[in-house]
C-alpha cells in the first residue's frame, strides 16, 4: 500500500523553487565550491552537480510534511555533492533541511539531531587535526559546524521558544476559562442568595395576606373581615418595607441589608405569626452566635412559621433554639394533617432555601412529618470565639 505524503506548504514550494533556480544560476556561470583538481572530486564535470542540486531541492518540498525523510535524502545528496565540484545552493538548502528537521520533526528527533551534529562537529575538528597534524584541518570541523550543528541548534532554540509561547497561551486560556467559571459560579451563588432573601422576606407577608383575604371573602362577618383587613394591611406595609430594603441592596450593591435580622427579633416574628392566627410558643436562649448563623436561624424559623400558616392544621406551633456541643439546634414543630380552612399552594422553594442556608454553613437540615406533627430540624455549627 503506497504511503501518500501530505501536500507541501506553499512556502516550502517557494523555498524549493528559489533554491533550484539559484543553484542553476551558479551552475550556469560555472561557479563551483571546489576546484576540479581537488582530491575528493570524483566527478569533475559540470553535469554531475545538477543531481544533488535537484535532489536537495526536491527534499525542500518535504521540510514540513516529512522533515526526517527530507533530511535523510538531503544528507545523501550533500554527501554526493562533496564528490562533485559542488554547488553553494545545495549546501544552503541542506542547512535549511537540518533546521526544519529540528523545528518541525518529532520531539525525539529534535532532541537527538543537535547532539549528533555537535558530536560530528567535535569529531570533524579533532580527528583531522590529529591525523593530518596541520592547522588547516580545523576548517573541516568549522565547516561541519556551520553546515550541520549551527542550523540544528538554531532550530532547537526556535522550537523551544515556540513551545514556551504555546504553553503560555494555553495557560492564559486556562486562566481565562477558570476566571469565567469563577465569575459564573459567583453570579449563580449571588442569584441564589437573593432568591432566598426575596422568598424569606416577602413570602411570610404574602402568605398572611392570602390566608386572611380568603377568610374575609369566605366569612360574612364584619368583625372577622375587619380583623382580616387589619392583618392584611400590616403585612402589606411590612412587605413593602422589605421589598424597598431588597431593592436598595440590589441598587447599592451592598453584601447584606443595612439591618440584618437577628435572633433578638424572634419575639416580634412570633408575635406577627400569632396575629396571623398561629398559636406559637417560643423557647430560645442561644446566647451570642456568629452573624451568619444568626441570620440563617432567623430565616429558618421565619420560613417554618410561614409554612405552618400556609399548610398547617389548627394547634400549637413550638419554636425552640438550643445551643450545645458547638452547634445551634433549631426545631420548629407544627400540627400536620388535613386542613379545612383556606390554603395557599406552595412551590417547595422554602424548603430548598432552608436546606441551602444550612449547607452553606456546613450544617444539616431535615424537614418532614413526625406522627401528627410536621418538624423542621436544622443544626448549624457555631464557631467558638468572637461571634462577629
How far apart lie the N and C ends?
A: 78 Å
Strand percentage lies at 5-15%
Helix vs. strand class: alpha+beta
Q: Please summarize the sheet with the most strands.
A: 5 strands, mixed
Total number of domains: 2
Order the strands across the largest sheet as they lie in space.
Answer: 1-2-3-5-4
Number of helices: 10
Helix content bin: 55-70%
Shape by Cα distribution: rod-shaped
Order of helices and strands: HHHHHHHHEHEEHEE
The total beta strand count reads 5
Which regions have little confidence, pLDDT < 50, spanning 5+ residues? none
Radius of gyration: 44 Å
Average pLDDT figure: 81
Topology at a glance:
Blueprint: H1 10-28, H2 50-60, H3 67-82, H4 88-104, H5 107-132, H6 138-218, H7 222-252, H8 266-275, E1 279-284, H9 291-311, E2 316-324, E3 327-335, H10 349-360, E4 364-370, E5 373-381
Parallel strand pairs: 1-2
Antiparallel strand pairs: 2-3, 3-5, 4-5
Question: How would you sum up this structure, described in words?
Answer:
- By secondary structure, the chain is an alpha+beta fold.
- The protein folds into two domains: about 160 residues, no CATH class; about 130 residues, Histidine kinase-like ATPase, C-terminal domain (Heat Shock Protein 90, 2-Layer Sandwich), CATH 3.30.565.10.
- The protein has ten helices and five strands; from the N terminus they run ααααααααβαββαββ.
- It has a five-stranded mixed beta sheet with strand order 1-2-3-5-4, with helices on one face.
- A hairpin with a 2-residue loop joins strand 2 and strand 3.
- Helix 4 crosses helix 5 and helix 8 runs parallel beside helix 9.
- It is rod-shaped, with a radius of gyration of 44 Å.
Amino acid at each position: 500500500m503506497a504511503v501518500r505524503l501530505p501536500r507541501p506548504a506553499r512556502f516550502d514550494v517557494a523555498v524549493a523553487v528559489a533554491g533550484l533556480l539559484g543553484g542553476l544560476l551558479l551552475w550556469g556561470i560555472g561557479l563551483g565550491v571546489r576546484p576540479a583538481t581537488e582530491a575528493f572530486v570524483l566527478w569533475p564535470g559540470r553535469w554531475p552537480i545538477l543531481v544533488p542540486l535537484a535532489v536537495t531541492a526536491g527534499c525542500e518540498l518535504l521540510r514540513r510534511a516529512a522533515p526526517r525523510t527530507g533530511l535523510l535524502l538531503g544528507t545523501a545528496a550533500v554527501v554526493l555533492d562533496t564528490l562533485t565540484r559542488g554547488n553553494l545552493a545545495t549546501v544552503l538548502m541542506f542547512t535549511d533541511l537540518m533546521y526544519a528537521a529540528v523545528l518541525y520533526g518529532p520531539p525525539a528527533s529534535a532532541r537527538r539531531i543537535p547532539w549528533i551534529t555537535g558530536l560530528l562537529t567535535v569529531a570533524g575538528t579533532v580527528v583531522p587535526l590529529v591525523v593530518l597534524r596541520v592547522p588547516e584541518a580545523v576548517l573541516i570541523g568549522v565547516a561541519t559546524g556551520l553546515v550541520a550543528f549551527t542550523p540544528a541548534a538554531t532550530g532547537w532554540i526556535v522550537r523551544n521558544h515556540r513551545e514556551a509561547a504555546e504553553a503560555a497561551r494555553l495557560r492564559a486560556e486556562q486562566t481565562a476559562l477558570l476566571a469565567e467559571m469563577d465569575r459564573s459560579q459567583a453570579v449563580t451563588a449571588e442569584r441564589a442568595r437573593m432568591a432566598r432573601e426575596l422568598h424569606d422576606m416577602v413570602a411570610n407577608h404574602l402568605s398572611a395576606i392570602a390566608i386572611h383575604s380568603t377568610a374575609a371573602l369566605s366569612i360574612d362577618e364584619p368583625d372577622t373581615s375587619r380583623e382580616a383587613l387589619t392583618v392584611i394591611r400590616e403585612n402589606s406595609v411590612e412587605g413593602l418595607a422589605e421589598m424597598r430594603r431588597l431593592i436598595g441592596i440590589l441598587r447599592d450593591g451592598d453584601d447584606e441589608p443595612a439591618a440584618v435580622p437577628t435572633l433578638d427579633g424572634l419575639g416580634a416574628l412570633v408575635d406577627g405569626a400569632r396575629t396571623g392566627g398561629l398559636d406559637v410558643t417560643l423557647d430560645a436562649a442561644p446566647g451570642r452566635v456568629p452573624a451568619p448563623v444568626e441570620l440563617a436561624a432567623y430565616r429558618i424559623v421565619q420560613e417554618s412559621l410561614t409554612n405552618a400558616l400556609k399548610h398547617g392544621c389548627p394547634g400549637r406551633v413550638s419554636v425552640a433554639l438550643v445551643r450545645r456541643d458547638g452547634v445551634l439546634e433549631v426545631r420548629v414543630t407544627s400540627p400536620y394533617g388535613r386542613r379545612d380552612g383556606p390554603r395557599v399552594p406552595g412551590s417547595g422553594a422554602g424548603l430548598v432555601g432552608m436546606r441551602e442556608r444550612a449547607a452553606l454553613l456546613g450544617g444539616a437540615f431535615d424537614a418532614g412529618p413526625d406522627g401528627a406533627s410536621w418538624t423542621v430540624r436544622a443544626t448549624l455549627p457555631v464557631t467558638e470565639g468572637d461571634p462577629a
